[in-house]
Design brief:
By secondary structure, the protein is an alpha/beta fold. It is 45% helix and 19% strand. It has a 7-stranded mixed sheet, sandwiched between helices. α3 packs across α9 and α8 packs antiparallel against α9.
């Protein structure tokens, strides 16, 4: 399944005005369960921050997490980096239109090489590590780029079906993934190996999240991949499924899961 072309297509539709793009961000925040988990963790972490904070969004994509972080405090300085130059240029233009150019910057970067020693209070990496083969090198760069006491916050698929893979014979639902997901011990060991002092992992996308993801993401993506004409049907589809997806997302964030298809990882330098 080619996921990136659909993201680019939707981004083009909602990028015609800043207001539409902000609306697109809010829609993603409601639909994407990982955003619910990330926002909860950021709200908890921010109480430990000093007033002036430097944050790196490592793999910033459309910039939706940078936008969310920029609304939390005017004193936070946020940098988004991504390997896709067109998205970097697009995000710089968009945030300049919002008047946030002094608070937010974007630049092209390869995470296997990107290091800014002892600069950041927090590094955010959302659904990025499953796309990078040299993950240990990236974790090492994250550690070097954090200030002492800084925190790395990662959202990534687990090895329990996180890429919709349930046995060795299946391929990932998202073809851009280089791994189907992380085992909690595997990612903990890698982070401790590169110098992090403490690591905590928890499962996301438990049973409520699995159902929500299929309703709100998997089935619509499959339909649109079949034909762009399904975009005309999607608003009516979401009128029916949206309330159920919201309730399931709420449950997933509130419940502690013994297993799940996603992982939320926190690591301290």
């Amino acid at each position: 399944m080619q996921y990136d072309p659909i993201k680019r297509y939707l981004g083009t539709i909602f990028n015609s005005t800043p207001a539409l793009r902000v609306m697109f961000y809010h829609m993603l925040n409601l639909l994407l369960l990982r955003t619910w988990h990330i926002k909860r963790e950021v709200r908890l972490i921010r109480n430990t921050f000093p007033t002036n904070v430097e944050i790196l969004d490592a793999g910033s994509g459309f910039g939706q997490y940078v936008y969310y972080l920029s609304t939390m405090s005017p004193f936070w300085k946020i940098k988004g980096v991504d390997v896709k130059l067109e998205q970097i240029a697009d995000c710089n233009q968009f945030f300049a239109k919002l008047g946030k150019a002094n608070q937010v910057t974007f630049e092209e970067a390869d995470l296997t090489k990107f290091v800014e020693p002892n600069k950041y209070d927090m590094i955010l990496s959302v659904d990025v590590m499953e796309h990078i083969l040299e993950d240990v090198q990236v974790f090492k760069n994250f550690n070097h780029s954090l200030k002492p006491g800084g925190i790395l916050l990662v959202s990534t698929p687990s090895d329990q079906g996180g890429s919709d893979v349930h046995d060795h014979e299946e391929s990932s639902f998202i073809e851009e993934h280089v791994r189907d997901g992380y085992n909690p011990k595997d990612i903990e060991d890698k982070l401790l190996l590169v110098g992090f002092s403490r690591v905590e992992t928890m499962f996301s996308y438990g049973w409520p999240g699995k159902i929500s993801w299929k309703l709100s993401m998997k089935y619509p993506i499959l339909m649109v991949n079949t034909s762009k004409l399904f975009l005309l049907i999607l608003p009516f589809y979401y009128i029916i499924t949206f309330p159920f997806a919201l309730f399931l997302n709420y449950l997933d964030v509130r419940i502690t899961h013994k297993s799940g298809t996603g992982l939320i990882v926190k690591a301290w330098k």
